[in-house]
């Protein structure tokens, strides 16, 4: 078994070494993003997310000891309940993922090289060994890249699929050119929706040094107020977002909506060389169509202007389909230490996959595109 060193803080890992292993600008596992999570106490402490970064000569794994399943977006609450009914502890468990982020990306960091079956097996054996040693219920690998699906299916784990809605840039020159791929009725609906918002509000896209500390402060007020309206609270605090502004400004897009020069809503995105990720949103009041404008249409325009290939706006939301977001499969892998539960989860994943694939096919029939596009 490959030897993995364990680090309990990203600050214990050299920034250059970590970025070399990540070998991309995928924002949610870059050193600066993880440092902001730790420094703001969004992870660590009593958050239920205890960092455990595993590094070998060839690989790095961003892992977390979890005391709950919040902020993961691969829902396993029913598995935890089954454990409890049998007098067993589901938590702690070991999670390899990007915290609070349902965005597909690298999870087994291999310096940008294709991971071999031997490397993958060594990594999963290390995860299983930690679970056996500490009596954790199992390990989970969330939102891994589709290219690794075949290799993972050859291992002693179960691959689970989900469905999100992503936008793809087919070399559009303008937003209007994108809309030309819609049927007439669907195109008119989008134009009407955008016009209604833009007659009342002014939308501004900010990046880099144009994003000020006060912008982040106002965004955060909107972000938390939106959660409070649903009787909950956002996972992340203002210190986290302010640190992102200073350490990752070149990968931030902040959309601001103003009424009579007064900011009333914000949407915060991150992006890399190929993909825009819609992540955080908040509004002081309800404006018809504003969420679609700030969180979807402004993002699509940004992708077209900057020639980004893909727009991942986050989880769920069938309302995205009629706006040109295509049903896209996501993947996670799971291994449980208890053999009988491991088998039961495997059966569950197989049955669920049939439903998810049917759902994906049904959702694709609702896309707004003309038949000749």
Automatic annotation (TrEMBL):
A Pfam family assignment: FemAB_like
Keywords in alphabetical order: Transferase
GO terms for MF: transferase activity
Protein name (Swiss-Prot/TrEMBL): GNAT family N-acetyltransferase
UniProt source species: Bacterioplanes sanyensis
């Amino acid at each position: 078994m490959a030897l993995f060193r364990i680090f309990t803080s990203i600050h214990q890992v050299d920034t250059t070494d970590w970025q070399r292993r990540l070998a991309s600008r995928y924002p949610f596992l870059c050193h600066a993003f993880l440092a902001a999570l730790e420094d703001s106490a969004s992870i660590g402490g009593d958050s239920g997310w205890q960092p455990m970064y595993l590094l070998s000569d060839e690989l790095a794994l961003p892992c977390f000891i979890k005391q709950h399943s919040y902020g993961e977006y691969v829902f396993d609450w029913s598995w935890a309940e089954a454990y409890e009914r049998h007098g067993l502890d589901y938590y702690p468990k070991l999670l390899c993922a990007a915290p609070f982020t349902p965005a597909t990306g690298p999870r087994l960091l291999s310096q940008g090289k294709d991971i071999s079956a031997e490397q993958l097996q060594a990594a999963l054996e290390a995860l299983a060994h930690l679970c056996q040693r500490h009596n954790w219920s199992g390990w989970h690998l969330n939102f891994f890249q589709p290219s690794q699906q075949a290799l993972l299916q050859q291992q002693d784990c179960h691959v689970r699929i989900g469905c999100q809605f992503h936008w793809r840039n087919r070399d559009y020159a303008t937003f209007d050119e994108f809309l030309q791929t819609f049927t007439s009725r669907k195109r008119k609906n989008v134009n009407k929706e955008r016009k209604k918002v833009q007659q009342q509000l002014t939308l501004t896209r900010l990046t880099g040094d144009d994003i000020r500390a006060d912008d982040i402060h106002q965004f955060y007020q909107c972000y938390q107020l939106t959660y409070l309206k649903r009787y909950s609270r956002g996972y992340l605090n203002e210190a986290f977002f302010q640190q992102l502004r200073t350490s990752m400004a070149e990968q931030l897009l902040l959309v601001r909506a103003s009424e009579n020069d007064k900011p009333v809503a914000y949407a915060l995105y991150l992006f890399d060389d190929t993909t825009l990720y819609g992540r955080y949103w908040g509004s002081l009041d309800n404006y018809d169509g504003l969420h679609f404008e700030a969180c979807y249409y402004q993002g699509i325009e940004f992708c077209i202007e900057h020639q980004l290939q893909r727009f991942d706006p986050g989880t769920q939301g069938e309302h995205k389909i009629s706006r040109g977001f295509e049903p896209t499969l996501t993947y996670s892998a799971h291994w449980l230490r208890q053999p009988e539960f491991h088998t039961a989860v495997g059966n569950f994943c197989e049955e669920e996959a049939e439903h998810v694939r049917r759902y994906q096919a049904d959702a694709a029939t609702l896309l707004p595109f003309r038949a000749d596009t």
